[in-house]
Amino acid sequence: MGLNEKPLSTLHEKASYDLDDFEVPTGREEAWRFTPLSRLKGLHTGKAATAGHVRVDVDAAPEVTVETVGRDDARLGKAYTPADRVSAQAWTSFEKATVITVPREVVASKETVLTLTGSGDGATYGHIVVKLEPMAEAVVVLDHKGSAVYADNVEFVVGDGASLKVVTLQDWEHDAVHVSHHHAQLAKDATFSSFAVTFGGDLVRLSPSVSYTAPGGDADLSGVYFVDAGQHLEHRLLVDHSQPNCKSNVDYRGALQGEGAHAVWIGDVIIRVEAEGTDTYELNRNLILTDGARADSVPNLEILTGEVAGAGHASASGRLDDEHIFYLQARGIPYDEARRLVIRGFLGQLIEKIQVEGIRERVLTALEAELAR
C-alpha cells in the first residue's frame, strides 16, 4: 500500500506501508530535527544489521487470548499506518507478531504483562496488536528490558464501549536504542488511558498516537521520564480528533540531570472540521536539575473548527523553585532531602495514577535510585 491520498494534516503529511515512500532522514526535517540520527544505529537508513532478538514473554489474564502470528495475519496493520521511515522499516522487517484479544464484554481478572527482553546482539523489529472487543475491559503492561537496537509498532484497537489501560516501561540497559510507535484506535464511547515510564536506554524515541472512529471516545495519555547524563529520551504525541464529541488529555513530566541529558517532548493535537464538541488539553513540564541538561518542548494545536468544548496546551521547563527549597529548609529539612522531596512531589503526582500496584512501586523505587545519584 502506498501513500494515503488525503494527508492527515499539515503537521503529519505522510502515512504509508511502503518503505520507499519515505526518504532517509537527514535531520533537517521537522520530525527528525531533535533526534541524533547518528545514534540510531542504522534504524533510519535500513543499514542496521538484523542479527538481534527481542524475546516476548506474556503473562496473560486467563480470559485473554494470546497468539503468535505471521506477517500475513489480516489483523495486523488495520488500525495504524506507518508515519515515518523507521515505523515503515519496522512494518517491512518484522517476522512474527503478538496478538492479544479480550473477548466481548469480558472484564479481565488481572493485568496482562508482556515482557520484552533484548539480547544485545544486533538490531531487530517487532509488532504487537492488542484488541478489545465491544464492552471489554483490560489492563496491559509492556515492560522493556535488556539491551537492544529495536524498532516496533504497537496497535491498540478499542471496541465500542470498551476500556483499555496501558502501562509501558522503557527500563532498558544504558546502551539500548528503541524507536517505537504506539497507536490507539477508539470506537464509539471507548476509553483509553496510557502511562509511559522512560528511565532507561541510550536513545529512546516513543511516539504514542490516538485516532477516533466514532463519537464519544476518551483518551488520557500520561508519562514520566528521568534523563541522565548523555541520554536522549524523546516523546512525540499525536491526537487526531476526527469525530464529534470526543475527549483527550495529555500530561507528561520529566526531570533531567547531568551533562548532555536531553529530553524532547512534541505534542500535536489536530481538531478536524467534523470534530465538533472536542474537549482536549495537553501539558508538558520539565525540571532541569543541573547545568548541561536540555529540554525541548513543543506543543502544537491545529484547530479546523470553531465549535469546540475546550482546547488548550501548556509547556514549561525550569529549575527547582528556590522558594520551595527555602520553605522546607526553614523547617529543619537539609537541602539534599528538601531537593528530593520537591522532585518526588513533581513526578510522584503523576506516578500515583499508575493503577498496577507492583509497577507503581517499581517506578517509585527507580525514581529513588535516580535521586540518590
Automatic annotation (TrEMBL):
The protein's name in its UniProt record: Fe-S cluster assembly protein SufD
Source organism of the structure: Nonomuraea zeae
Superkingdom per UniProt: Bacteria
One Pfam family, short name: SUFBD_core
A GO biological process held by the record: iron-sulfur cluster assembly
Organism taxonomic ancestry: Bacteria, Bacillati, Actinomycetota, Actinomycetes, Streptosporangiales
Protein family according to the UniProt entry: Belongs to the iron-sulfur cluster assembly SufBD family.
Residue ranges of the TM segments: none
Gene (UniProt): sufD
UniProt-listed InterPro entries: Fe-S_cluster_assembly_SufBD, SUF_FeS_clus_asmbl_SufBD_core, SUF_FeS_clus_asmbl_SufBD_sf, SUF_FeS_clus_asmbl_SufD
